[in-house]
Specification:
Layout (H helix, E strand, L loop, with lengths): L36 H4 L23 H4 L7 H9 L4 H13 L4 H8 L6 H8 L5 H12 L8 H13 L3 H4 L2 H7 L6 H13 L3 H13 L6 H13 L3 H13 L6 H13 L3 H14 L5 H13 L3 H13 L6 H13 L3 H13 L6 H13 L3 H13 L6 H13 L3 H13 L6 H13 L3 H13 L4 H12 L6 H12 L6 H13 L3 H13 L6 H13 L3 H13 L6 H13 L3 H14 L5 H13 L4 H13 L6 H13 L3 H13 L5 H30 L1 H7 L12 H6 L1 H23 L1
């Protein structure tokens, strides 16, 4: 008979597993949530291993799978993941903080169940806590225990906790706290604070901690001095770093090579090359000569700042010290010289590398080829290409693109086309930058057959021809003299079916920029008459053009089309349409358009924002407040325009302050912001708008009291049926109000009789 399995014995209860037997000196502790880890922290399901073969050609960095982020853990899952590495008592304390969330009597009661909290335990708890309030309360509660004294570990953990929750100013006060509690801070505590500020790039705060360190009479080591100076240099506080270096010398410390290099890099970045040379002389006399790595670091800093002359000075110093430059130093300087249009000097360095039989990187060849092409020395660039291939390298697509552009610039288009075929043959996957010079040259030479043949070739190679044509026309319209040529090419391509809405839009923008608004609108008519449907960008361009020719009604129709598409016009279209509505005295519609723009656009125009501010200031009916807003607006660099004036008229008319509006206009006239003629025009608009508002108010009052239908029923012809004339209504205003007053008086007398 096989042996029977022994029954599983339950664990003996003690602190880790749950309830344990109490004793005289150890209060009862019950197992909390942290005790039963099997149910509260189950193992996550294993991840599925995908065995699919990775193909770099098919990889899309913007695909959802590539951008997928692992789901973040819940607070409970994060707590239990961290709690695995804690001691049982530390887990108990952290669990109490998690359950009660805030410091209070329940937390204190849980802590009082423990016999004693040691400094090591305090440091262990503070290392994982993120709430600065609870951490501070717990730290001070632990310090009040009888016979308890914090140690360096607990102070350091407290400083880390405060800095982790962005309370770095409070963390900087930890040394004072230590001093008050009879534990003077050491260099280590200040080093921790310095490291925190360096990591967060807080240079001024770093210098503050350094000054505090001096007040406590602590002298940093050479290593810490280097860290302080490096942090100040990296945060752009070179002068403070030099003052720290002066303290370094006063303390009698000896510089290391790192010390010199930190200051040299900072001076190079600031362009103070004379001080750099002085520091290098001091380094030679006191320590040693800079090595090739130090000189390369200086070159990189100067190249990043675009300071080529100082780069050559440092290069001469390197030759003076008989330091042999390596490939990295050569590559850094050659690339900088070629980019700075000093390719001849870069080519001399290239020859030096050849003589020394250095392994020349393909990037150096690419820099020199680009430099020669920029100087229209295509022959030298082709020689370098031959040398590159003979050296065993394979030219990349960027090199071929540069050579193709250079050959087209010197009108050697046949050779450029041959290079394009080489890129296809070598499977370099040519793109639009490869064919752009060819397309531009064919267009300028009006070789449209070759142009269309190249488009066919591109289509066979898998190019997105329509998108690339949009890029081509964007390149063509960059120069104003080529816009006419672009239109001719477009007319030719349109007959062959190479057309899209984006191309129409690009040409409309170009024509509008050159002032040919009517031609731009004719292109817009061509879009509507074709099979293409205009997009919101095209409608936005049309709005601007229609407003400029004075057809605001068509501009409003285009705006409505955009809204029907659930899209938004461009900010330029909003501005143009608002000004157009103001010019035809449709002030209410313009204000509504302004509100619509600010409600939908992330960062609307400044004048639109001040429009609402002026409307709000008009509620007070005080001209001084409106003038203050206008002054503030002009200080911000925003000059008043039609929309601002219309907002002033609308706001003042709405609140019946027509005289205050005139005061504002007079003030603007005094400051020469408004001409006399424009002031008269706006005064007339103010009166007309006030009449319109008053007429609307009268009609609303008649409808409210129910007088309109009664007057018409009695055969009254005083009320117009449609589109009431403001002058007519104002002329009969007294009669309307008298009738309403008589009816109200009669109704009141009847109510009094009924009440009596």
């Amino acid at each position: 008979m096989p042996p029977q399995p022994q029954p599983h014995k339950p664990h003996k209860f003690y602190f880790f597993y749950g309830h344990r037997k109490p004793s005289q000196n150890r209060p009862t502790v019950h197992g909390g949530l942290f005790s039963n880890r099997k149910t509260l922290n189950p193992k996550p399901p294993p991840l599925e291993n995908s065995n699919t073969h990775f193909n770099l050609q098919n990889w899309d960095p913007d695909s959802p799978k590539s951008l997928a982020i692992a789901p973040s853990k819940t607070p409970c899952e994060r707590f239990f993941a961290i709690a695995k590495n804690l001691s049982p008592i530390a887990r108990y304390i952290c669990d109490s903080f998690r359950k009660h969330r805030n410091w209070g009597p329940p937390v204190v009661a849980d802590l009082n169940k423990l016999r004693r909290v040691t400094p090591v335990l305090v440091a262990e708890v503070l290392k994982i806590q993120t709430d600065p309030v609870i951490c501070s309360k717990f730290f001070h509660w632990a310090g009040k225990q009888k016979g308890y004294h914090h140690n360096f570990a607990s102070y350091n953990a407290f400083a880390y906790c405060l800095n982790r929750s962005n309370q770095f100013r409070a963390a900087d006060q930890v040394p004072e706290l230590m001093n008050m509690q009879g534990k003077p801070p050491s260099e280590k505590q200040f080093e921790i604070l310095i490291r925190m500020h360096i990591d967060a790039k807080r240079g001024l705060r770093l210098y503050y901690v350094y000054e505090k360190m001096k007040k406590f009479g602590i002298k940093p080591r050479v290593f810490l001095y280097n860290r302080i100076m490096d942090g100040l240099v990296k945060t752009g506080h070179l002068d403070l770093a030099l003052s720290v270096y002066e303290d370094f010398k006063e303390d009698g410390l000896v510089e290391e090579s790192v010390t010199y290099m930190i200051l040299v890099k900072g001076l190079c970045k600031a362009g103070r090359i004379d001080e750099v040379l002085e520091l290098l002389d001091r380094m030679r006399s006191n320590l040693c000569k800079p090595d090739v790595f130090a000189y390369t670091a200086m070159l990189k800093v100067l190249v990043a700042e675009g300071n080529l002359d100082d780069c050559l000075k440092v290069w001469k110093e390197m030759r003076k010290d008989k330091v042999q430059p390596d490939v990295m130093a050569y590559a850094t300087l050659v690339a900088a010289l070629c980019k700075g249009n000093r390719v001849e000097e870069g080519f001399k360095l290239f020859k030096e590398m050849k003589e020394k039989k250095y392994l020349i990187d393909r990037a150096i060849y690419g820099s020199l080829i680009n430099g020669f092409v920029a100087n229209e020395r295509v022959g030298s660039a082709c020689d370098l290409l031959k040398d590159l291939i003979d050296s065993g390298y394979r030219a990349d697509l960027a090199i071929y693109n540069s050579l193709i552009e250079g050959m087209c610039n010197v009108k050697q288009v046949d050779k450029a086309y041959m290079l394009f075929q080489v890129t296809v043959h070598e499977s370099l996957e040519p793109n639009f930058m490869t064919v752009k010079p060819l397309l531009v040259y064919y267009a300028e030479m009006k070789r449209m057959d070759d142009f269309c043949s190249l488009l066919g070739k591109m289509q066979k190679l898998g190019f997105s021809v329509i998108d690339d044509l949009s890029k081509f026309f964007s390149v063509m319209i960059e120069k104003e003299e080529r816009i006419k040529l672009a239109l001719e090419v477009f007319e030719h391509l349109k007959g062959k079916g190479y057309c899209s809405v984006s191309i129409f839009r690009i040409l409309m923008e170009a024509l509008h920029r050159t002032g040919e608004v009517k031609k731009a609108l004719s292109l817009f008519d061509d879009i509507k008459n074709s099979n293409f449907k205009p997009d919101s960008f095209t409608y936005s361009n049309a709005i601007i053009c229609f407003v400029e020719v004075g057809d605001v009604q068509e501009a409003c129709a285009c705006y409505n089309k955009i809204i029907e598409m659930s899209q938004l016009p461009s900010i330029a279209a909003y501005r143009s349409l608002a000004k157009g509505l103001c010019k035809i005295e449709e002030i209410d519609a313009a204000i509504m358009l302004v509100r619509d723009c600010l409600a939908n656009v992330t960062n609307g125009p400044m004048e639109f924002k001040y429009t609402l501010t002026i409307l709000h200031a008009c509620k007070s009916g005080n001209a001084e407040k409106v003038i203050d807003v206008l002054n503030e607006m002009m200080q911000e660099g925003c000059t008043p325009d039609e929309v601002i004036y219309s907002a002033l008229i609308s706001g003042m008319c709405k609140h019946g302050a027509i005289e205050e509006a005139r005061k504002v206009f007079s003030n603007m006239r005094e400051h020469k912001l408004l001409t006399e003629a424009n002031m008269i025009v706006y005064d007339e608009i103010l009166i007309e708008h006030m009449k319109k508002k008053t007429a609307d108010l009268v009609l609303s009052g008649l409808k409210f009291f129910g007088l309109e239908s009664k007057l018409r029923a009695k055969g009254s012809t005083l009320l117009p049926i449609k589109n009431p004339n403001p002058d007519f209504l104002l002329a009969n205003l007294e009669q309307y109000l008298l009738s309403a007053l008589m009816k109200a008086t009669a109704a009141e007398s009847r109510l009094m009789e009924y009440a009596g």
